[in-house]
Structure formats: C-alpha cells, structure tokens
Amino acid sequence: MSLTSENIEFIDNYLKHSNVIYADIRSEMTDHIATAVEAGMTETGWEFLTVFKEYMAKHKKELMKMNNRSQRFSMDLLKHYFSFLTKPWMIFFGFVNFFLLMVYFRIPANDFQMAVDSYTVPLIWLLIILLPQLIVYMFTRKRFYYIERNGFLAAALYQISLLLTLISAEVMPLGIAWCSYVSIGYILYILDNLRQFYTNKIYLTSITK
C-alpha cells in the first residue's frame, strides 16, 4: 500500500509540532517514518492513522535522536561539508578559480592585503554566515540544518585563508584564491543542498507547500 500526499503532509506536520525545526532533518525523518508505516500498512492491511500511531508510540523516542543532533556541532556536519568540497567538479572549480585570479586577471596581492582590515573581516564573517541563510529563508520560508551550521565552518575556513595572505608574498596568491574558493564554494554548497532537497520526489508534494 502506498501513502498519499496527504499522509506525507500529515507526517511532516506532526514533526513540525514535535519541534523538528530544520526542513532537511524533518525530510529525513519523514522518509524514515513513511517507509516504516507503508510497510506496516502492507503487512497488516490497517489504515494509515492506526499504523502511524502504533509506530510512533514504539519509536518516537528513538526517532527524536535524529533531531537532537541539530542541537550540537558534530562530525556528521564536517563530513557533509568536506564531501562536497572534495567532489571532482569542485576540485576542478578550485583550479579554474586559482588560474583565473592569479594568471588570467592577475589580481594584485598588495591591493588585496590593504583591503583586509579590522572592519572588513567581521563584515565578511557576517556576510558568509548570515546573508546566504537569510536569502534562503526569504525564498523558501524554511531553515536547513546543514546550511546554517556549516556557515560557521565556511567563515572559519575563510578566516584561515585571510591569515595565509599575511604570511608572505609567496603564500599570498594561494590565500587569495582560497578566499574566493571558500566564499563561492559555500554558495554552491547551499544551492546543491537545496537541489537535493527539492528533487526528493517522494516528499515534493508536501515539503514545497
């Protein structure tokens, strides 16, 4: 027996009222619950609500552990972000980015160093962490766990790249390219997360509402 779009929306709303605030985590949990409930309906022949209530009575505590990870910074976050940065096409983008900045456009290193002062660094941190997340929320009206939490990681990597520009003239080009790579890379990371979220065909009817 297959679940209807109304059943999927019911599960999604139930999780919302259970304080599962991040849409991507809620989608994972909805996927888990829907698969189990669908199997239970097929096995018993019972209606959706009966199987759902029985399943949640037995497994809610266990399921909420999936939501509890949103309360802390975990290795899962690091793996999720770095697995994106190490994708072949992202590595290729990194080389192209370095070539364009350092060879084709010949960005002056001294000009870049002069722009890095006590005012721009905090501003850049805020822009990397907050601005993309605000734009995502404005268009989707949803919060995303991986996007929000890895914004801090992206900002930290950007700070490291700024430090590289101050070490020496030889290292500075690498730092400049890394600054650009981290900034653009985080935007691409956001877009990739949104693409995966909205191409989940099972839940498209409910999560896009």
TrEMBL record:
This is Uncharacterized protein. Keywords: Membrane, Transmembrane, Transmembrane helix. It comes from Flavobacterium magnum. The chain crosses the membrane at residues 89-107, 119-139, 151-169, 175-191. The keyword Transmembrane helix applies.
